[in-house]
Design a protein that fits this description.
By secondary structure, the chain is mainly α. It is about 40% helix and about 5% strand. The chain contains five helices and two strands; from the N terminus they run αααββαα. A two-stranded antiparallel sheet has the order 1-2. A hairpin with a 2-residue loop joins β1 and β2. The chain is globular and about 45 Å long.
Length: about 120
């Protein structure tokens, strides 16, 4: 696999990342924080549940809005903290915050962010 457009699975994307990222950057992303067991626990947890895609039809008026800490968001799903994301791409923390703002979804800045909270709040 040589192109992201041909990736069909998460495993395909992981292999692309392994090939194109330097090892010092790939390893923390692949293994997560601490002892690296978090991603493995996530994989095992998802094996316990069947995720089956279903086609929605007749759904013309969907409202996922939710209020969290007095702030209304378009969806209860958002962009979670991604530690050291700035090591992968310059300005990514600001890009992710802007994308979350545009989509009106929650955004969480990592304590390991390359951006300051002041940069993000701009």
């Amino acid at each position: 696999m040589s192109s992201i457009s041909k990736a069909a699975t998460i495993a395909d994307l992981r292999e692309l990342a392994r090939r194109f990222m330097p090892e010092f950057a790939f390893i923390p992303v692949d293994t997560g924080a601490g002892d690296g067991a978090g991603p493995l626990r996530n994989i095992e947890a998802f094996k316990k549940h069947l995720l089956q895609a279903r086609v929605l039809s007749g759904v013309s008026d969907v409202d996922q809005r939710v209020t969290v800490f007095g702030q209304e968001y378009a969806s209860p799903f958002g962009i979670s903290a991604i530690g050291l994301a700035g090591n992968m791409r310059r300005g990514i923390d600001e890009d992710l915050a802007a994308a979350a703002q545009d989509a009106k979804i929650p955004f969480m800045l990592s304590g390991g962010s390359a951006a300051t909270i002041e940069q993000i709040t701009k």
